[in-house]
Amino acid sequence: MKVLTDAMLLSGLLLAPSVSGSTGQTPIDHPGKPFSYVQPRNTSILTPYGHSPAVHPSPKTSGKGGWEHALAQAKEFVEKLTLEEKSWMATGQPGPCVGNVLPIPRLNFTGLCLQNGPQCIEEGTYSSVFISGVSAAASWDRKLLYDRGYALAEEHKAKGSHVILGPIAGPLGRSPYDGRTWEGFAADPYLTGVCMEETITAMQDAGVQANAKHFIANEQETQRNPTYAPDANATTYIQDSVSSNVDDRTLHEIYMWPFANAARARVASFMCSYNRLNGSHACQNSYALNHLLKGELGFQGYVMSDWGATHSGVASIESGMDMTMPGGFTLYGEMWTEGSYFGKNLTAAVENGTVSTDRLDDMIVRIMTPYFWLGQDKDYPSVDASVGPLNVDSPLYTWLYNWTFTGPTNRDVRGNHSEMIREHGAASTVLLKNERNALPLRKPRNIVVAGNDAGPITQGSAIHSNYEFGVLANSGSSGSCRFSYISTPLDAITARARKDGALVQTFLNNTQITEEGMTSLWNPELPDVCLVFLKAWSEENVDRRSLDLDWNANAVVAEVAKNCNNTIVVTHSTGVNVMPFADHPNVTAILAAHYPGEEAGNSLVDLLYGDVNPSAKLPYVIAYNESDYNAPLTTDVLTNGTYDWQSWFDEKLEVGYRYFDAHNLPVRYEFGFGLSYTTFDLASLTGKAVATANLSALPAQRPIQPGGNPALWEKVFTLTAVVTNTGTVDGHAIPQLYVAFPKSTPAGTPPSQLRGFDKVWVPAGETKTVTFDLMRRDVSYWDVVAQDWRIPTGQFTFHAGFSSRDFRANTTASFVR
Ligand code: NOJ
């Protein structure tokens, strides 16, 4: 165990009052002339956004919402701390975990281990690789989300992590080019909000603190961090990080929405993001942290910085950030630098009165309350030594000789999770096309398996880079995993095919397929089916340059389909891909499996052979062409001013399907779409108000709780519908509810927005009643003048069906006069 001494606090940079004045706001001196590689901003639009007002002081936690007892314990603990100890606790230190708050043995505090990530224990040994975030969202299954989060947290806990750095609601998927959409959930705030809430509740039920990241408007990787002068000791920017410039209504209705669910789930911590928001760094943006998060959303836990996202001391602290990470040893751009804006500088700032003791105490109380609330002070597993060498966020030499591990190393924490992962893989794979009854397979005797994504990984089991050969079931950087085994499509298909005495021929080299063709196929007979496996990689810190599948995938499909009139395409992908091959008459079926984790092959075979009936739905839109998507990333700037990286969210609420619907644009596969081996119908949509009287337009002003005004979360309307399985196979239906707001709602309101869904098992020929409960927030828009959620007057239309473009029943209602 490492014991803290003042000398161990690494020497720091001067604690500057702030980057620019005491408000912590970084100036925007002009609206910028950004260059997006697809479409420049229309600079004739006068923007009401692009700056961020200062809001001080930082609200203090009161532990409301169920943390009151833990808060008292935290306060008692904080009373025993010295000033230096408090400063250390707010400052991450080198150690075996990705983030470390060091132990204080005299108080029996064993420290905090913060660990990535959203799909596994980052590169962890003897641990499971679960389905990815985007896969989990594609399941549209609350129970799956909960079970996944719980099991992931069980493994983290057994390896000694106190904090899981996830789940992710930002990026939300404003643009499909964002490199990290697979780590998050859906390009829709409602679905992502449900995913956040279920995952956080589950993780914390398992005793591990969750971390809602990356707050906020973190919608591109390009220029996520400033570029620094090479000699700069990390202080001189060449150009600052990109500023996401978002108007108030969009911020509330799109980007903040799922984070409100996170706060309501009483998430222990938030991670402020790398980008600037409306000109001010997210980690020193007092409007975002003090006003929105700790004020409006009533968040009671602590805000930690993303790694190296801290750009000031006092300004960040006064703006609401409570913990800097990785702290004493900080990543600036791509450069490790000793020192911290916090640490001993924080001690000095309290001593000279720049930061009040009150504020520092609140920071530590916020950090310690969830720890006590989850009982992490009692018998918590020690940190497994095996995680140390994998930690790239504080290099080994910075801590190894000061750290003593206890407990067994290389603990096997997998339990029987693989069974669940197999089920989850099948439940999250979306069937996009199925013609000529191609699926399920009926004992094919002559099978071709093609594509470099079908077989084993040939470059080690820890995922680091876009490898050519092997199935892609996870991707790179802080969300990357180590497979203790992987069920590949080739293994699983071969094992299954052997039962049928089938012939399995493999063509696993994309270059060979496209350059030499598949001539050996002509002996001895035409295949019954050709299964083509394609993949698309993307990772943190880099945005995608194309929405095509990788490794010349389109040409691979063309070649296979030329030889095989029953070609089934399976994709393992980060998210959106355009699929020019979808119209090919020989491509009879398409499955999007995203990144399904360690049971990739088995879970797919369960679907291919019909042991499981597909039920998953797209959590984003697949357009016909790349150029059909709006909201291009800012990938370059033509000017060299320090603050010139600007990303204008001019599309406002038109994110994802909202854009395509608003402009009536055709899409290949819409949001919420996915086929089954059966067919469903939905009818008799009826609604019933919870109260007999009309509702007030604005919510009653009730004391803020975690998640915000509790009146927003009150059930106001219940809809029911009847779902019938009209086919011959039992299966899960996923009925969805969309709302069209009345005409009185301000311009820019999307034509329809998801506000409910359910996953229901319906045997063939039977019917089930489904219920959608709407809360006040679901039927409100953010009124920028009232600064509140307003239910508009006039008639709402509710559409229920099986995708954002497949409505089967409608009903109307009005709520306010
Ligand atoms: C940066 C990433 O943005 C964040 O998601 C991750 O948790 C930290 N690095 C720590 O690895």
CATH hierarchy, class of the largest domain: Alpha Beta
Number of distinct beta strands? 33
Approximately what portion of the residues adopt beta-strand conformation? 15-25%
Q: Which value, in Å, is the CA radius of gyration? A: 26 Å
Brief rundown of the structure:
The chain is 21% helix and 20% strand. By secondary structure, it is an alpha/beta fold. Strand 16 (446-450), helix 13 and strand 17 (503-507) form a beta-alpha-beta unit.
Protein model, in words:
Belongs to the glycosyl hydrolase 3 family. Residues 733-804 form the Fibronectin type III-like domain. Pathway: Glycan metabolism; cellulose degradation. By secondary structure, the chain is α/β, with parallel strands linked by helices. The chain has 3 domains: 6-402, TIM Barrel (Alpha-Beta Barrel), CATH 3.20.20.300; 420-620, 3-Layer(aba) Sandwich (Rossmann fold); 678-814, Immunoglobulins (Immunoglobulin-like), CATH 2.60.40.10. A 6-stranded mixed sheet has the order 2-3-4-5-9-12. It has a 6-stranded mixed sheet with strand order 15-20-19-18-16-17, with helices on both faces. Strand 13 and strand 14 (335-338) form a beta hairpin. Helix 4 packs antiparallel against helix 12 (417-427), helix 5 runs parallel beside helix 7 and helix 13 crosses helix 16 (600-608). The structure holds 1-deoxynojirimycin. The site of 1-deoxynojirimycin has 10 residues, from strand 5.
